[in-house]
Amino acid sequence: MTPSPVSAAPAIRVFVVDDHPMIRLGLIAMVEGETDLECVGEAAHGRDAVRLIPEVAPDVVLLDLLMPQMDGIEVLQALAARLPQTRFLVLTSLVEPAQVQRALAAGASGFLAKTASAQELVHIIRGAHGGRRVLSPEVTEALIDAQRSPAPGADLTQRERDLLALMARGCSNQDIAGQLHIALPTVKYHVTNILGKLGASNRTEAVLLALRHRIVATD
What we know:
The chain is built from 10 helices and 6 strands; from the N terminus they run E-H-E-H-E-H-E-H-E-H-E-H-H-H-H-H.
């Protein structure tokens, strides 16, 4: 008896989300260049992604982190729980450990820098589809470095964070004293501690550091 032919495994279905047309087209070309991958859709921003991805239910989504009309984290928060069989891989041009951790907490299966090679990208897509959490080497290195040196503001108390948030809104020491119901000398004491812990020479520098490192949220 002639053995029946073994059917090939179905291609991994990939959806690409990136607001830069050249990057998006480049990612699609990389996907289509592999015999075991196929691109089943694309979106230029987060809102389109949230609308289109459930319609095609891809195996893997390549998701840009920084986009207009919903960023990658917001897309993850909207879709990851709804599509448990879909693996989301977040791409970014700037690797920040805090963003990596937020993405993984929101349901990402992997995180990679846009400087990753085509070979790395394909390897990570296959790994994510296989059920593994995958990080590109640049992301792994950034996470290790972050563990070696605490992030700025890690030693701030909750009271100091509350005070710093008011400073970021432009509140004076007098305003802060009124809002937090504490004495003006106490405010000045906390401000001095905040500057010391952040290594800042003045309030403006402290606020800029707080915003850059996302120590306080922006409205």
